[in-house]
Write a structure and sequence with these properties.
The structure is a homodimer of 120-residue chains.
Chain A (H helix, E strand, L loop, with lengths): L3 E3 H5 L9 E6 L2 E11 L10 E7 L2 E5 L2 E5 L3 E5 L5 E16 L18 E2 L1
Parallel strand pairs in A: 2-9
Antiparallel strand pairs in A: 2-3, 3-8, 4-7, 4-8, 5-6, 5-8
Amino acid sequence: MVDKVNVAEKFSRFSDHWSPKIIAELNDFYVKAVKVKGEFVWHHHETEDELFYVVKGRLVIKLREGEITLNPGEFAVIPHLVEHLPVAEEEADVLLLEPKTTTNTGSAEGDRTVANLQRV
Amino acid sequence: MVDKVNVAEKFSRFSDHWSPKIIAELNDFYVKAVKVKGEFVWHHHETEDELFYVVKGRLVIKLREGEITLNPGEFAVIPHLVEHLPVAEEEADVLLLEPKTTTNTGSAEGDRTVANLQRV
């Protein structure tokens, strides 16, 4: 049977920041839920475009040429190779849509890289 | 520059039913906005999985083995080859996420097939 997903319910299942959880997959893409707070790290993805959709709170995506502020019901697609730095002054709930090969830190692999994604 | 997309604003740009509009693309996927009302046609997609996310209203997806009712903030992924029939008693606003190769009627090509997708 096909299950439905309630997005708010998925976000209620975890509380850690900057650690995306897989909530759905379709073909070569994942849908992930991530709670963000504070500043992440500057990075880009070599081949993967990445969609950020804000469900709750506010997300700022800094780019080398400016910044984008996303409120609930708004999204942006960051094309591959474009450097970006996600920042959230207060905690925000964000859906990510991206190819399965995408890692959270992309080109900036390090302490904040999440290698093995959980499912919630 | 990377643009942000306000989903509600995209839905305000058109009024026809069952005619998905492209609102974003990333790698081999499109994000589409579609207004639905009434019953569509039974169909499946040969290779494409399809995500339905309800923004406004209510969408029922009938399956051969039951049905799923989606309210705002809920989504379902219909795997390829699974027959489905979307139905909305009242008008609903739905986001679709699917590979670029996906047509709206899949296996049931006919009068309701939208061959050339508009962008809004």
